[in-house]
Design brief:
- By secondary structure, this protein is α/β, with parallel strands linked by helices.
- It contains eleven helices and ten strands.
- The protein has a six-stranded mixed beta sheet, sandwiched between helices.
């Protein structure tokens, strides 16, 4: 694996030797509790876009460096010094500029969801604002017992605008609870997150959470990469469409995907009680 092609200022990308085909992406600004400045958004988008087409990667774990936080979200100090771009004085034209600007940031988060590989996020400590936006774009969410979540944007004077309000209701299927945490900006912990279905499981520490995420990613990476890509794509499509539309999309998608040699390889390995191997995608 060529880790040199994943050299970034605010993120560390590793390829654990004991977990073949797994990439571990770590937010790496622990001295600021992994709070995001503008450059970090763009780096993250680049990383997940690159990993999406990397044939040596089949699953991804995302975590945060340091013991205090997965991420505290937006770096408020940096934002207060001018996060929004210069724009014309005319209100309508200023709105156009701001809409485009917000769209760029939304796209950076959506890069995680668009990534063809399964993404497992391992959260600990403070996981505020952007942390929720980011994690809802992932496929599986795990957390440590000490985690503190908050849809924090209401406390900052604006509505969450990069994913939470669109994705979180679909993740948990509990609109009333989402409205409560979004409108109050209150903190909620690991057990509540597990109860409502926001996270899949809770672990004792940050390291335990990351280890569990890597183990799960390794299991996913052992499957056919075509099967993983297809399953993620169809699930995401079906989430946003009717059952009938989802079935039709699945039929069209699988009319191509079922022609892969991976299908016979997987079936035969089950009959022969051996571990199948699959070509890179």
């Amino acid at each position: 694996m060529d880790s040199q092609s994943y050299n970034f200022q605010y993120f560390t990308v590793r390829f654990p030797s004991d977990h073949q085909y797994v990439a571990h992406v770590e937010i790496n600004r622990p001295e600021k509790m992994n709070a995001f400045v503008e450059a970090m958004w763009h780096e993250m988008s680049q990383i997940f876009t690159q990993l999406s087409s990397d044939p040596s990667v089949r699953s991804i774990v995302l975590s945060g460096a340091g013991e205090r936080a997965f991420t505290t979200g937006l770096d408020v100090k940096a934002a207060s010094q001018g996060l929004t771009p210069d724009a014309p004085n005319d209100p309508a034209r200023k709105a156009v500029h701001l809409r485009r600007y917000i769209g760029v940031f939304q796209d950076c988060i959506s890069a995680v969801e668009r990534c063809e590989k399964p993404v497992i996020v391992a959260m600990h400590g403070f996981a505020l604002g952007l942390a929720v936006d980011l994690s809802t774009a992932a496929d599986v969410r795990l957390c440590s017992r000490d985690v503190q979540f908050s849809v924090k944007e209401a406390d900052l004077g604006f509505a969450a605008d990069i994913g939470t309000l669109s994705r979180l209701p679909k993740v948990v299927g509990h609109f009333g609870w989402v409205k409560e945490v979004a409108l109050t900006a209150r903190t909620f912990g690991a057990e509540e997150a597990l109860r409502v279905g926001f996270v899949n499981n809770v672990y004792g520490s940050r390291q335990d959470t990351v280890s569990a995420a890597l183990k799960m990613a390794a299991l996913m990476a052992s499957k056919s990469p075509l099967a993983m890509q297809s399953t993620k794509e169809i699930l995401n499509y079906s989430r946003d469409h009717t059952v009938e539309e989802g079935l039709r999309y699945t039929a069209v998608w699988n009319s191509a995907a079922l022609q892969s040699k991976d299908v016979s390889a997987a079936m035969l390995s089950g009959l022969q009680k051996r571990t199948p191997t699959f070509e890179k995608l």
